[in-house]
Design a protein that fits this description.
CATH class of the domain at 31-131: Alpha Beta
Helix content: 25-40%
CATH superfamily of the domain at 31-131: SCP2 sterol-binding domain
Distance between the termini: 36 Å
Largest sheet: 5 strands, mixed
Strand content: 15-25%
Oligomer: single chain
Shape: elongated
Structural class: alpha+beta
Number of strands: 5
CATH architecture of the domain at 31-131: 2-Layer Sandwich
Length: 145
């Protein structure tokens, strides 16, 4: 008995299509439309996957996130070119602590609006983090160099 994984099949078929027809750019969509449905972990994952590890390799920073209306606490750390985050109740010292509500978090991440957001610590930490994020390329090749 044999089985076929749809994920791999789609990957191979997409690669074959790209080799025959060239790269087809994807439509640019605004992530802000999906953001309200995402968990805080998913929001932070969307930042972490955009970090340019080679450029961020020598930088270390930490942020404590305290969304007050949902009772969550997150710690985010950038080191060795990787951005990691994890929920928790233990509060370690961080370069920056951000206290805000869930709607304020969405506005901060997707519109840069920090109205009503309380920052305590080094104000340069967010701009340092943004320095190492890449802009997604809608013409991402699957199999061609």
């Amino acid at each position: 008995m044999r089985s076929e994984c749809a994920t791999w099949r789609n990957c191979f078929l997409s690669g074959a299509w790209e080799l025959r027809n060239g790269i087809k750019p994807t439509a640019v969509t605004a992530a802000a439309g999906m953001a309200p449905a995402m968990t805080t972990t998913q929001l932070f994952d969307s930042i972490a996957i955009r970090i340019d590890g080679a450029r961020a390799w020598d930088t270390t920073l930490s942020i404590n996130w305290d969304p007050t209306d949902v009772g969550e606490h997150y710690r985010m750390e950038l080191s060795n070119g990787a951005l990691v985050h994890f929920p928790g109740t233990a509060r370690s010292a961080a370069g920056l602590t951000v206290t805000l509500t869930r709607p304020q978090l969405l506005r901060l991440l997707f519109a840069g609006d920090h109205t009503g957001v309380e920052f305590s610590g080094d104000p340069a930490v967010p701009s340092t983090l943004l320095e190492f994020t890449d802009t997604p390329d809608p013409r991402l090749p699957l199999v061609t160099p």
